[in-house]
């Protein structure tokens, strides 16, 4: 179903940027279906554990919850049932395991490494590894899983909409909250929802990025596409600034800041849409010597393949960095815009990690 004008708030900057030819092929880097809000059967134990771990006051408290679940035999039972899960349910289970691992301070662990067994319970590591294998997503304790699979519209939509439309138009709430029920959403909650909205609005950026694949110097449509690429990046920058202001007013805890800090140190807070922009423009994705491939390992397999294909197909376009003329000017303007967009996103991350 093609998006309509009502999918974007009237008068919004995005509404002025895109035209019908830009309508996205849903859902970009968002899941095709809304993430599962509840798990059934024995998997309700994982649901309960994830909710409890997320609101733990310290990693040690979250680890005790995992220890208790392991001693009760719940984790071993779930590991045996991973192959019975449908793909959407497997992703929902992986999101909950990612929340638990992050809350326990284990986000940097490799569940298959022998040394990890000295830190975490083997049955939890086994469940973690089984879900990673099932989804072909080895490093899933990262933003693409923690944010893009952890949201829902507050109210059920009366219209048939794609997930990106819902994420743009509806008020969002987390499925697994990092703040206790009945209390305001915390900074980490709002940060993760901001990442969802960034992907939803950035879908037009991805569409233009994929339309640029295979084009190069001399293509008469390149300059126009790059100018529109720049304008959408400007819109996203304004959106992030608004999110940053709201984020600064939300409550936070040392535990939540520690979770974000650990993820940031591993490059695990990279938004997929910014990785796509970097792929087109050849800058912006490497931090502290981290390569593009290292940053992409936090993405699901299908998204890694998508970016690899985009990387290959945009090679002719990236030669504009060494040329002159209108196309090259538009290319460099898009590069500069991406640099500023990344700085704005970094400000959002720093605000989320700042003391309350």
Describe the protein in words.
The chain has helices spanning 13-17, 44-54, 59-71, 74-80, 87-103, 122-134, 143-146, 163-169, 187-201, 203-212, 222-248, 254-265, 272-281, 292-296, 301-313, 315-318, 326-353; strands at 152-153, 172-173. With 356 residues, it is mainly α. It folds into 2 domains: 41-141, no CATH class; 159-353, Methane Monooxygenase Hydroxylase, Chain G, domain 1, CATH 1.20.58. It has a two-stranded antiparallel ribbon. Residues 16-25 have a biased composition (Basic and acidic residues). Residues 1-28 are annotated as: Disordered.
The CATH class assignment of the largest domain is Mainly Alpha
- Rg, rounded, reads 20 Å
Percent strand equals: under 5%
The CATH architecture of the largest domain is Up-down Bundle
* SSE arrangement, N to C: HHHHHHHEHEHHHHHHHHH
Layout of secondary structure:
Blueprint: H1 13-17, H2 44-54, H3 59-71, H4 74-80, H5 87-103, H6 122-134, H7 143-146, E1 152-153, H8 163-169, E2 172-173, H9 187-201, H10 203-212, H11 222-248, H12 254-265, H13 272-281, H14 292-296, H15 301-313, H16 315-318, H17 326-353
Helix pairs in contact: 2-3, 2-5, 4-6, 5-6, 8-9, 9-11, 10-11, 10-13, 11-17, 13-15, 13-17
List the keywords.
2 domains; 356 residues; mainly alpha; two-stranded antiparallel sheet
Q: What would you say about this model in short?
A:
Residues 16-25 have a biased composition (Basic and acidic residues). With 356 residues, this protein is mainly alpha-helical.
């Amino acid at each position: 179903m093609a998006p309509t004008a009502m999918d974007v708030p009237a008068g919004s900057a995005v509404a002025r940027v895109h035209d019908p030819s830009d309508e996205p092929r849903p859902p970009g880097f968002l899941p095709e279906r809304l993430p599962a809000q509840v798990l059934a059967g024995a998997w309700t134990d994982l649901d309960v554990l994830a909710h409890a771990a997320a609101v733990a006051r310290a990693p040690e408290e979250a680890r005790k919850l995992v220890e208790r679940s392991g001693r009760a035999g719940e984790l071993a039972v779930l590991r045996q049932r991973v192959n019975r899960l449908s793909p959407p349910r497997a992703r929902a289970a992986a999101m909950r395991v990612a929340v638990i691992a992050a809350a326990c301070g284990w986000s940097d662990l490799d569940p298959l490494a022998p040394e990890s067994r000295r830190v975490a319970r083997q049955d939890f590591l086994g469940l973690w590894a089984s879900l990673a294998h099932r989804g072909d997503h080895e490093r899933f304790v990262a933003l693409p899983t923690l944010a893009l699979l952890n949201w829902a519209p507050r109210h059920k939509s009366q219209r048939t909409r794609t997930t990106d439309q819902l994420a743009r138009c509806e008020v969002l709430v987390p499925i697994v909250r990092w703040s206790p029920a009945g209390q305001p959403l915390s900074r980490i909650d709002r940060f993760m929802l901001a990442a969802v909205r960034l992907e939803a609005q950035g879908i037009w950026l991805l569409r233009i990025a994929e339309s640029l694949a295979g084009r190069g110097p001399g293509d008469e449509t390149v300059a126009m596409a790059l100018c529109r690429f720049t304008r959408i990046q400007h819109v996203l920058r304004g959106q992030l600034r608004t999110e940053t202001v709201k984020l600064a007013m939300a409550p936070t805890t040392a535990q939540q800041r520690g979770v974000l800090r650990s993820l940031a140190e591993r490059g695990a807070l990279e938004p997929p849409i910014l990785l796509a922009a970097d792929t087109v423009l050849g800058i912006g994705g490497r931090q502290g010597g981290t390569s593009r491939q290292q940053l992409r390992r936090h993405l699901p397999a299908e998204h890694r393949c998508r970016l690899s294909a985009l990387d290959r197909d945009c090679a002719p376009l990236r030669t504009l960095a060494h040329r002159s003329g209108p196309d090259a000017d538009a290319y460099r303007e898009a590069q500069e815009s991406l640099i500023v967009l990344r700085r704005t996103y970094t400000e959002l991350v720093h605000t989320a990690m700042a003391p309350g």
